[in-house]
Amino acid sequence: MIAAPPPPPRLLLLLGVVTVVVSAAAAVAGAAPACETANCGKGRCVEQPGPFGLDTYRCDCDGGWSNMFKLIPASPCTVPNCTFDAACFNLGFTPPRGIPLTDPCVFVSCGDEGQCVKDQGFSYHCACKPGYVNMLNLTMFPCIKNCAFGMDCSALGLSPPPPPPPPSSSSSSPSPAPPGYVSSGNLLQLLLLLSLAMAHIM
């Protein structure tokens, strides 16, 4: 397993400020309890009282998973406790492609081998080039090489996905919506999660 270096103190301070701002924005917007908009990845959200009377949460990770930042209890459980080849991640940051606040792809990087595709509303998904898959098989995450995870990761569900089935020419039912839709209620949490992931990788 590859150990990540601890995040710099300025990054921790920035993440703390971002968490408070996001929580405050959710409280002002009349949002539901913290766990209704939290994304803990491979973990369970547990609500707890926070500063200034705002509800906050922590992510309790499932077996075999760790928080992205051990010092930030609200960081998502996205680090597998198994071997993985960091060189296979090959994540690069694609700079934002515009200013419109109605396009979630302005704020999302799908990696050098993926492209953000805007869906309905504030929803999007990362479409990967051949030979690449979405991290954790979730289409809201960046594209990584198929070779990233070792054999001991299969118990965590991190083996390469099976090839897609061949297209059917006799389909009379409408095709399902692409996976990875992100509601506007989860957009702030997702943006925080993606910025944490990019900061962790860089």
UniProtKB/TrEMBL annotation:
Signal found in the keyword field: yes
Transmembrane region(s): none
Entry keyword Acyltransferase: no
Top-level lineage group: Eukaryota
Domain EGF-like: 34-83, 104-148
Keywords of this entry: Signal
Signal peptide: 1-24
InterPro entries tied to this protein: EGF
Designated name of the protein: EGF-like domain-containing protein
